[in-house]
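Proteins fold reproducibly. Consider a sample protein:
=====
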Amino acid sequence: MWIVRLALRRPYTFVVLAMVILLIGVLTIRQMATDIYPAIDIPVVATIWTYTGLSPQEMEGRITTQFERAVTTTVSGIEHIESQSLAGIAVVKVYLQPGSSVIGGVTEVAAAAQPLLRSLPPGATAPGILQYSASDTAILQLAISSPTLAEQQIYDVATNFLRPRLATVRGAQLPLPLGGKQRQIVVDLDPQKLFAWKLSPSDVSAAIARQNLIAPAGTVKIGLQEYAIRVNASPDVVAGFNDLPVRTVGTTTVYLKDIAYVRDGFAPQTNVVVIDSNKGALLPVRRAHGASTLDVVAQTRATLPVVAATLPSDFHVTPMFDQSVFVRAPVSTVVREAVIAAGLIRYDDPDLPRQLAQHLDRARLHSALAPRVDHRARLAWPDAQPHDTRWVGARSRHPRG
């Protein structure tokens, strides 16, 4: 063949070419993302709307339907739209045409959602927009527990201290923890006292909104010095809300503590995580699109001791459900098979079949002559037992080919 003749005439060229291919292969393997599933680039943009208190029917009519109409007007290249309306939550998935830019789709969906906020119910916030991928799954779970901290404190430490530090891991995505109690300032109203003072819950909400403001006051110059002014427009502690005035009836001022009680509480809990009979939280670690599972898990495990040193001493973080085990096992299998194949290629010579045949013939001959030698030994020493030294010596003197 011409390529063989060319290799024989130019041996150094082919040696250099083989070294270049080997070098490129090693560099490619080092930079290649390692995972169970390949990178599946599905052009799907998922949008999550939240509005606490609305029923599924109201979520569909007031938020989901209006957003779908706005998306079909602004976003280009739509293949179809899927939506699901739940109590207080609406999930809208926009499927783009094959080959469409997912980054461009995310930008167009975000641009369509912002103007829509003015026509939605009061208090509606901007949705969460995610790039959906079938291969973006949780690769590690962090079990968070503490024998002394309450569920609100566990959730607060995990959200405000643990997640920001682990977010620096390259290729890692950390959603909000599961379990725990989300901290909120709760106002517990007394219906009988509200009725006695002829007040409604909306009056209390409006009074709190008017007196809990963040207002910039600027600075003041006194002589040669300039001082920053801080306005006392928001309570510094939770107990300060109880002293807010709600309404003046005649000469009597009704304070918030007269009709309600303000406390440091939590939002209604929808899931519970129990770790060793103690309530805790579970923080999923997901890999970003195109990242390597092995690298993300290894960097997360290496970062955990550094982060744990800054957390309370009785705050425990335990990695579990490590999915890198299922990635590392196939990789080791592929490497082992590659080594076996390389060994077979190394010893591929014309004499190998003949040598294997000789070994097989000798094995067959030993198997055929062994019963005859045993029979002759029994004739020579009929009273010998299998454990007798003469018996053993006789068995060991059979021909070896």
Summary: The chain has twelve helices and 16 strands. The first strand starts at residue 44 and ends at 50.
